[in-house]
UniProtKB/TrEMBL annotation:
The protein's name: Cytochrome P450
Keyword Chloroplast attached: no
CDD domains linked to this entry: CYP64-like
Source species: Rhizopogon vinicolor AM-OR11-026
Keyword match Transmembrane helix: yes
Binding positions (heme): C319
A Pfam family hit: p450
Pathway where it operates: Secondary metabolite biosynthesis
């Protein structure tokens, strides 16, 4: 869907998408976001070295639930594997150097990779969709909501002739929703943890805010959000500091246009430099530094500058998952800050392991795995963790 031109199929997929992920509709997923964030904390404490895979599990389980009403297992879920494998191959092909390469270049593997990617993508579209459809047929989920279930019920009221087109659009929109959510949410959490490892002072201030506002006996919920402005400032700075979709998704002009005296012919590829906006020194002095305080006013409230207004793109093709992204990333970072200390990893002699952050390249980017450590905060005792385990 994200790479489809502006046409009827796109419009239908976008409409389907919007019905589930518009702000008021996305609210119903909030309890699930919090529950999955708690599960992520337990995973991080059980296996801290695998933190990137726990972020991927969080992102995929949130998406699987919202899109297919599929309750994935805490680790190594088979259906999540089908989808994640397809995405790994597909996204690895979308790098600038691959885009420059042509299949006649000696050694180019682009055709072969494309074939494998197509097969995996078809599997990724079909397998979870069949699962969700079967559940609707079995009448399992009258009371439960998911993008596929809601729309299959809606489809029942449509004309027979329209149903095949609707089902194809739904399948596409569902796959795109999962793909759009999985990589971006995981990448944003990687950026957040990198920032916490490099800026312990920021983490301390955030934890002090949480302790003061909600105490130490429970974990944050969405009801606390407006009372935790510094957590939101960290969230904004995370989106801004290392933009994970630096050039947005490329588009093309549908007709000739003239801008600033330049003719832009029909069909020209146009990319929006989101990275450039986020790193503009006039708007963000010392832009390469992680400074959440830039979003806090003297009276402690948030400023009007929210990077979410540009980091998700613009206009007709603006990211339709932005409200869900906002809820899932907020729940994950607020829960992590309340319950964990995130710090640089140490070697066997207790010396901090130095590292230089490195990033992947491509349509989306994220920090490569770096050494870091997760431990429970001093008040997070085993009873609280047991409570979380039972609640999940
Ligand atoms: C922090 C997380 C995310 C970021 C930074 C992000 C960013 C973006 C950007 C920059 C675009 C291109 C917009 C444009 O062309 O102007 C986009 C498109 C899209 N995103 Fe996201 N996104 C995020 C999370 C999500 C989530 C959670 C979902 C699904 C629930 C999602 C689904 C999509 C879809 C379907 C499109 C294509 C829309 C279209 O072409 O009509 N994204 N996203």
């Amino acid at each position: 869907m994200a790479f489809t031109g502006y046409n009827e199929t796109w419009r239908l997929s976008r409409r389907i998408f919007h019905q589930t992920f518009r702000p008021d509709s996305a609210l119903k997923f909030r309890p699930m976001h919090i529950r999955r964030a708690h599960e992520m904390i337990l995973n991080l404490l059980d296996e801290p070295q695998q933190y990137n895979s726990h972020f991927a599990t969080f992102s995929s389980s949130v998406a699987m639930s919202a899109v297919y009403d599929y309750e994935s297992s805490a680790r190594d879920d088979p259906l999540v594997r089908v989808v994640a494998d397809a995405l790994d191959i597909g996204l690895a092909m979308m790098t600038p150097e691959k885009a420059m390469s042509t299949d006649w270049c000696p050694g180019s593997s682009i055709k072969r990779d494309a074939q494998v990617s197509t097969n995996r993508t078809n599997e990724m579209m079909d397998v979870p969709f069949r699962y969700a459809k079967q559940r609707v047929v079995d009448n399992f989920i009258e009371s439960r909501s998911s993008m596929v279930a809601e729309n299959l019920r809606r489809m029942e009221k449509e004309d027979e002739a329209f149903k095949p087109m609707f089902e194809t659009a739904l399948k596409r929109a569902a796959t795109t929703a999962f793909a759009g959510a999985y990589e971006t949410t995981t990448s944003t959490l990687m950026v957040f943890v990198l920032a916490m490892v490099l800026h312990p002072d920021v983490q301390k201030r955030a934890q002090a805010e949480i302790d003061l506002v909600i105490g130490r006996d429970r974990l944050p919920t969405f009801d606390d959000r407006t009372s935790l402005p510094y957590i939101d400032a960290i969230f904004r700075e995370t989106l801004r500091w290392e933009s994970i979709v630096p050039l947005g998704v490329p588009h093309a002009t549908t007709s000739d246009d003239v801008f600033d005296g330049y003719l832009i012919p029909k069909g020209t590829t146009a990319a929006c430099n989101l990275w450039g906006i986020a790193r503009d020194e006039r708007r963000y002095p010392d832009a390469s530094r992680f400074i959440p305080e830039r979003f806090i006013q003297d009276d402690g409230t948030l400023t009007d500058d929210d990077p979410a207004r540009y980091i998700f793109g613009f206009g007709r093709r603006i990211c339709p998952g932005r409200h869900t992204a906002d809820a899932s990333v907020w729940s994950a970072i607020a829960t992590m800050l309340a319950s964990l200390d995130i710090s640089p990893a140490k070697d066997e002699q207790g010396k901090v392991i130095d590292f230089t952050p490195e990033f992947t390249a491509g349509l989306t980017r994220h920090p490569k795995v770096f050494p870091c450590s997760f431990s429970p905060r001093s008040h997070v005792h085993s009873e609280l963790l047991d409570e979380l385990r039972t609640a999940i």
